Amino acid sequence: MNIPWVEKYRPQTLDDVVGQEQIVTRLKRYVDENSMPNIMFTGSAGVGKTTCALALAKSLLGEYWQQNFLELNASDARGIDTVRNEIKSFCKLKAVGSPFRIIFLDEVDNMTKDAQQALRREMEMYTKTSSFILSCNYSSKIIDPIQSRCAIFRFAPIKAFEIIKRLKYIAQEEGIEAEETALENIVYFTQGDMRRSINILQASTTEDKKITEDAVYDVISRAKPKDVRKIINKALDKDFMGARDLLRDILIVEGISGDDLITQLYQEVTEMSTSGLLDEENFVKIMEYMSECDYRIREGANPRLQLEALISKFLLVK
Length: 318
Ligand SMILES: Nc1ncnc2c1ncn2[C@@H]1O[C@H](COP(=O)(O)OP(=O)(O)O)[C@@H](O)[C@H]1O
Ligand SMILES: [Mg+2]
What we know:
Elements: H1 5-8, H2 21-33, E1 39-42, H3 49-61, E2 69-73, H4 80-92, E3 101-106, H5 113-125, E4 130-136, H6 144-147, E5 151-154, H7 160-173, E6 177-178, H8 180-190, H9 194-203, E7 210-211, H10 213-220, H11 225-236, H12 240-253, H13 258-274, H14 280-298, H15 303-314
Helix pairs in contact: 2-3, 7-8, 8-9, 8-10, 11-12, 11-13, 11-15, 12-15, 13-14, 14-15
Bound molecules: adenosine-5'-diphosphate (ADP) and magnesium ion.
């Protein structure tokens, strides 16, 4: 059977979760005490919120966890009333074989304020029998009465070295040979999102069980950072034609989109500034040119023309 690696390598226990040490420690305390309050997980995608909810539920509810655990998505296509009806009918029943029941409600920040008010009343009504785990990307979108009823756990993006370690582990388990630079490029692109990192790893594995830098770039359809850096350096060295040729290769031969490329130029220029390769005055000038170019591309101007005009402006920089 072909299980996606994100599922195959989802940590089954809190101890196996990568990073998020403080969160894991706090959650284990609930397991030790054999009880939990209502809790809220917030943080960006692919950092372990659902994974921790499942692992916590398994530890707390034990053998009968499946009967006593309900996972729902607040953005369910069938509508919020269906979601609330499921919560109601689940909470009315007493826990069997476990001390209480757990409802895991994902994407709560997509609920309207009214729906959140109703949810809050349900949370109050069923406190004796059930605990809620709410999950969202932004806690600021959740009404105060819910926030104040929950212990809040803020999930951070996972550190690059920790993702690389995990990717190496998966590659080893799968009998795959992975280039170090390929893995580095995955984490550069995914910025702390473990789910996307693993998905890219799987998608870029070749038939002969290898993961190369080129295969990674095919999958993420991004330009290689070193090529982007080359464009910038050529332009700053006043070699317009050289910079333009590279730009065309990336846009036409590699098929990278204009707005992806401008984002990458931004990323590279920022890095050059932080590492002292570009002084502040020039950095500010370039940022101004780039934001103008970005705006025009988003408004529908021809991306290639705009990007060529942008690099021609790099020549004005001292
Ligand atoms: N902290 C983590 N440690 C190990 N694997 C993780 C972690 N976070 C995410 N993953 C991987 O990414 C997948 C999706 O993670 P998930 O917990 O569903 O993310 P989300 O924060 O979006 O709920 C998991 O199945 C697992 O393979
Ligand atoms: Mg999730």
